What we know:
Blueprint: H1 3-26, H2 42-47, H3 52-62, E1 66-70, E2 83-87, H4 90-99, H5 107-118, H6 127-141, H7 144-172, H8 178-195, H9 210-224, H10 230-239, H11 242-273, H12 282-287, H13 295-309, H14 311-326, H15 328-346, H16 360-364, H17 367-379, E3 385-389, E4 394-395, E5 401-402, E6 407-411, H18 412-415, H19 419-422, H20 463-480
Parallel strand pairs: 2-6
Antiparallel strand pairs: 1-2, 3-6, 4-5
Helix pairs in contact: 5-9, 7-8, 7-20, 8-13, 8-14, 9-11, 14-17, 14-20, 15-17
Amino acid sequence: MDTSTVMMILAFVAAYFVWFRSVTRTLKGPKGPKLWPVVGSLPGLIENTSRMHEWIADNLRACSGTYQTCIFAIPFLARKQGLVTVTCDPKNLEHILKVRFDNYPKGPTWQAVFHDLLGQGIFNSDGDTWLFQRKTAALEFTTRTLRQAMARWVSRAIKNRFCPILETAQLEGKPVDLQDLLLRLTFDNICGLAFGKDPQTLSPGLPENSFASAFDRATEASLQRFILPEFIWKFKKWLRLGMELSLSHSLKHVDDYMTDVINTRKLELVSQQSGGSQHDDLLSRFMKKRESYTDKFLQHVALNFILAGRDTSSVALSWFFWLVTLNPKVEEKILIEICSILMETRGCDTSKWLDDPLVFEEVDRLIYVKAALSETLRLYPSVPEDSKHVIADDVLPDGTFVPAGSNITYSIYSAGRMKYIWGDDCLEFKPERWLSEDGKKFEPIDQFQFVAFNAGPRICLGKDLAYLQMKSIAAAVLLRHRLVLAAEHKVEQKCH
Length: 496
């Protein structure tokens, strides 16, 4: 290699390091994750995969709630596509999720990843497409009849399936996988509410349901796409390789199942006009609208709500029951509240308390249980992180400049664990922080401090339904059983 070539290479390397130094100086949060030449913060991400959410929280604590990093420190990419702003500051969250809502959509990357499964459904769309679905769904979610329908589905599943399984396990002295049972229970409930068909995954023997399995595989394969650059997973999709092949097969099964459901419902709605049975699920409600929706649109409506309402509630309940086992005083207060309500509604004969799950009006009065569930979601939100795409250059309230084309990740997990937001006891499980001084009223906390149900225009429509389901299940279990963690079972957070 001649001298001129060596000098050229050295000049190129020197220029790169000058550029790299200038980029690292402009990033917000000098105490954030270490940046390496070319690979950026990727080594830190890989090293902390098993504790990702806690690692992000550590970085945010060190940087007063906001930091910036480069996934790839490469010229022309680092200042935009490679730049990620990470925050949990409530003022920044309000700015992103409400004040400048239109500037921070889900973006093309997110939509491309989930398009095959969710299409242009409410959780995978932006702009007018999202707004139209949001307005339509919002009308349905505010109706009392939908809450009553959810109460019926939950009550039936608790009485006929969930409680008998737990009782059998207790009599036989066998441990149960509570998270699996809760996942099956919430899946049956959300399918019943979304399209009026019970997949019966919580039947005796816990059978495998082909639709549930296909939906799980499709969701997992879609999430795998986030790990790979878009051109790679699209190339694998074209070649039908690996998870992309699995996704294709799973989507075919989901599509066939939903086509059958929709066709059956159309026939039932025709017979209903002639005096047949009534349906109050979301799918039927959309079908009864004057607008004529395509079958594919109706399918995506149902699948979007299943994805939103299934794992979220079951994960929250799993953490809730674990935290209750660690805090016997909280369990005692929950039982006192449940028993006090049942004493008023069902009398002193305690045998009548267990005949049926709590009805809608009884569940509505569970103030302390709601506080304990909210405290659970503060510490262990079902969706720990979320991200947005930046349309135009902007400055966040804390002074952070975010360029167009970059991405913002807001850490919901971290937002619940910051001392400057929640006080020195932020890591304690303390339901009382959600109650009035006399302990008789539930006092909601600012939605931009508590982002477990999202916030702003995209705040969760099913929030009240989620609380209804979780409170019903929590009361049914704790009234009948004292839970104990199985010997040598390790409780840990899934970070991937």
